[in-house]
Amino acid sequence: MSQTSQLRERLEQSFGYKRFRPGQSKACRAAMDGRDTLILMPTGSGKSLCYQLPGLELDGVTVVVSPLISLAEDQAASLQENGIHAVILNSSKSKKQIESFREDLRSGRSEFVFTTPEQLQQTDLCELLAEVGVDLFVIDEAHCVSQWGHDFRPDYLCLQYARKRLGDPPILAMTATASARTVDEIISCLQLINPVTVSNSAYRSNLRLAVKACDSEASKDELLHRLLTYDDGLVGNEPAIVYCNTIKDVERLAEKFSNLDAPVLVYHGRMKKQDRLDSQNAFMDGPPAVMFATNAFGLGIDKPDIRQVIHYTLPGSIEAYYQEVGRAGRDGKNANCTLMFDADDLRVLKMFAGGHLDSSQLATAHHCLCQGVQRCGSEDGTVALTDLTKISALGRQTLKNCLQQLASRGIVAPAGRGRWRLLLSEVSRDITDRIADDARRRAEDRQIALRQMVEFAGRHSCRWSAILNHFDDDLTADLEDCRCDVCEPDINRSVEKAVEAEKREIAEIIS
């Protein structure tokens, strides 16, 4: 039986599908052949199957790195519904659960393990998995390597070392889409070897993109009220997400709109873990609700019937914008995506886009590791971050970030269980200057991405064309049926017309 026939048979037996979606067969065959693979497929196009199918066919365990606990839970539950056992090893699990899951791995009962970059770096999980045998190393939401790795969750930069500790299995990296520059950074950070690239068009014909210029908080709130309460047969009493850049806005708006007919939910990074989970579960499984959230919510959320995604404030990049609007209309039915644009939003965004490590901090971190290895290093030449913190002039997080940046250049290396190994005992100022210069360039890139987002909001031509051009998508010439507010402005004014008519009726009654 040919490989393709074998995969198709497994596709029907294990998942109930008779045919592949575009790109899935190519991605599965590349993984089966042991090739590094980069998958660029829009939300809802079936990326998960691209690792699930070869993971079942290959011998060994498939390791899936997920950026969010909720994402891992969703994907593991999906496998278990098909009778496929999977374990989750992350900070949400108790010691008893983790030991039970680890035993499942040792016994060969589990074919899939979902974890985080932090677990791979800070525990002995890599060593356990290497003993069991890993057939595929999956990096889900791979754009996080570029967007988060350097500045937000630097353990992403060390996935290349985790791969080696796992026994050098092939990597399958997945994301909804990425610009050419982001693709290059993913390949570089993960050190993919001559990867097979599987790319589908980013165009989602059922998503209607619109931008609304606002000149004050009051005008935004008024527009938001209209969007959430006007029933035009599409968005009335249907699930919606309202994205804000700050926790302050999330909490203020949730309180202001607490009297909506639909339940109002909140999600942001400062909430207690259980409160976040309860809020997410209520949105996923409860009655249609409105979720007010920062961008901490939604990555990998597989809810098919979200009818509205509203950006109360400007996202920091076109990539972020596309990822977030892509959570609407996963069932293929029409959905509205509205972006509110107020020039005052840029002040907060510019603050988020700044900041980077400097050369002296990197040199200090390297010197600290040299001293730590001498003073309190173990026999294998590694030292714990906790011990380094005690002798460092840098704060714990800054020290860790510096070590991650040095690791990305092969100067130091993570050794698991929160320990670090020194690879080069001497580092010149030229090297730390170059690393710091790269950090400054990334800060400048964030500013450029922000300007691109502003240009997108202010454009007077097709919005989908702008997005597809950004991602070098060849479909830009075939957008005759585009439903954006520029291509179909009459639809864009439906809410305003209805509101104006309502105001006229009220005026007549009063008079």
UniProtKB/TrEMBL annotation:
Start and end residues of each Helicase ATP-binding domain: 28-196
Keywords in alphabetical order: ATP-binding, DNA-binding, Helicase, Hydrolase, Isomerase, Metal-binding, Nucleotide-binding
First-tier enzyme category under EC: isomerase
E.C. numbers: 5.6.2.4
PROSITE patterns assigned: HELICASE_ATP_BIND_1, HELICASE_CTER
GO molecular function ontology, one term from the record: hydrolase activity
Signal peptide (from-to): none
Family according to the record: Belongs to the helicase family. RecQ subfamily.
PANTHER family: ATP-DEPENDENT DNA HELICASE Q1, DNA HELICASE RECQ FAMILY MEMBER
Descriptive protein name: ATP-dependent DNA helicase RecQ
Species name: Aporhodopirellula aestuarii
